[in-house]
Write a structure and sequence with these properties.
Elements lengths: L8 H4 L5 H14 L5 E2 L11 H11 L14 H15 L9 E4 L2 H12 L5 E6 L4 H8 L3 E6 L10 H11 L3 E5 L11 H14 L2 E5 L26 E6 L12 E5 L1 H14 L5 H12 L1 H26 L3 E2 L6 E5 L6 H12 L1 E2 L1 E2 L10 E5 L4 H16 L1
Parallel strand pairs: 1-11, 3-4, 3-5, 5-6, 6-7
Antiparallel strand pairs: 2-8, 7-8, 9-10, 10-13, 12-13
Helix pairs in contact: 2-12, 3-10, 4-10, 5-6, 5-9, 7-8, 11-13, 12-13
Length: 393
């Protein structure tokens, strides 16, 4: 008989993982023979572009790429990041000390508080928001404080409320996520400028998760980098990912860019915890950045078509939604007075349709649900059909 060991207090203090309840409902539905169709997971269903795969094959066959990577990433990779950043955002970076390779942006965001947050320090994070934002703060001994993002403000922060939270809590950092998972909200240049001004005024670190910057729909409406904003380099670090842009979720490659002291702090954590990304993957990622427009635009075109399928279906059903300007998510209101969890449970039980309840992303997510556009068109049409059937019942 195996011994059961007690988890650490830091794990016990984490909030319950709401999606485990959904998994149990899915398992029960499958036992009844229900054919499940899931739009709950944000993992691209398309393959990585062939040209990137070919670059990986070439790099992987070279024994020089079988050794440890420098903790910070190779200079060649970081130079590719700097070139891309200049072309895409007009921002000049020093590859030596303002760029850091990561094993996925989630890794960087999770490790960042270990570099700057002391036990008891407060940090602000968005709600609704990706769960790692708050749990990373807790695991580092910090106290996460939610910044409400609401429907009436297009899920951008209210600046007066934000400044009041900064004054009351004196946070070590403020985390931003635009374009946002789960809401798909995009921040305006004015709001972002005001946030940078607030951070500089109150000496608050800005941590920007910009993993979806290249998952946009209108080339004339491309998301910003916070580092474009004057003064941001004084206080900000920004995280980017190859996962969504190039369908490279399993490759675990990303980077951080920004203030040199923030980069240095994160690097010091990395040198004590993990290593740099696989050298062959960095080579393939360099190629992806150097050919970003050619490789990413066909992927965006797929999501443009899928977005219209879902939005047309939601309009037919009378369901309100936030117009997605970026990401491959659709954020919509739960019809009627049902809770988001009750709505999602019912869809699974009655129709085998799996969506994500807004409450799983924080209190301000209640009353909403998220749909991921990461299944083929035919399945999206079927998902809308099942949704319509559930609403009729």
């Amino acid at each position: 008989m195996s011994t059961v060991f007690q988890h650490s207090q830091r794990l016990l203090e984490l909030p319950p993982y709401i999606f485990s309840e959904i998994n149990a409902i899915k398992a029960e539905a499958q036992k009844r023979g229900v054919n499940l169709l899931s739009l709950a997971i944000g993992d691209p269903d398309q393959p990585t572009p062939t040209k990137i795969i070919e670059e990986l094959k070439k790099a992987a066959s070279d024994p020089q790429n079988h050794v440890y990577s420098p903790y910070e990433g190779t200079l060649q990779f970081k130079n590719a990041v700097s070139r891309w950043f200049k072309n895409r955002f007009g921002v000049t970076l020093n590859s030596e000390n303002e760029v850091l390779a990561l094993i996925g942006s989630k890794e960087g965001i999770a490790h960042f508080p270990l570099a700057f947050v002391n036990p008891g320090d407060k940090c602000l994070y968005p709600s609704p928001g990706y769960p790692i934002f708050s749990t990373a703060i807790q695991l580092a001994g910090g106290i996460p404080i939610a910044v409400p993002h609401r429907w009436e403000n297009d899920f951008q922060p209210d600046l007066n409320e934000l400044e009041n939270l900064i004054l009351v809590h004196q946070p070590k950092y403020l985390l931003l996520n635009f374009p946002c998972n789960p809401t798909s909200a995009v921040c305006t240049r004015k709001v972002m400028t005001d946030i940078v001004d607030l951070a500089r005024k109150h000496r608050t670190i800005l941590v920007a998760d910009n993993a979806y910057s290249e998952m946009y729909y209108d080339v004339q409406d491309r998301p910003l980098s916070i580092l474009e904003i004057p003064g941001a380099m004084d206080v900000a670090i920004e995280f980017h990912s190859f996962s969504k842009t190039f369908n490279m979720t399993g490759w675990r490659i990303a980077f951080a860019a920004g203030n040199p002291s923030l980069i240095a702090g994160l690097l010091r954590v990395k040198t004590n915890i993990d290593s740099g990304p696989l050298l062959a993957v960095q080579k393939a990622a360099e190629f992806a950045l150097n050919n970003a427009d050619e490789l990413a635009e066909p992927i965006r075109n797929v999501y443009r078509e899928r977005r219209e399928i879902v939005l047309n279906g939601l309009r037919r059903s009378g369901i309100e939604y936030l117009q997605p300007r970026a990401t491959f998510f659709v954020w919509a209101k739960v019809p009627g007075n049902e809770s988001s969890m009750s709505f999602v449970k019912r869809l699974i039980a009655e129709q085998g349709l799996v969506l994500t309840p807004g409450i799983g992303f924080g209190q301000e997510g209640e009353g909403f649900f998220r749909m991921a556009l990461t299944v083929p068109n035919q399945q999206l049409h079927e998902a809308i059909r099942r949704l319509e059937l559930a609403l009729k019942r």
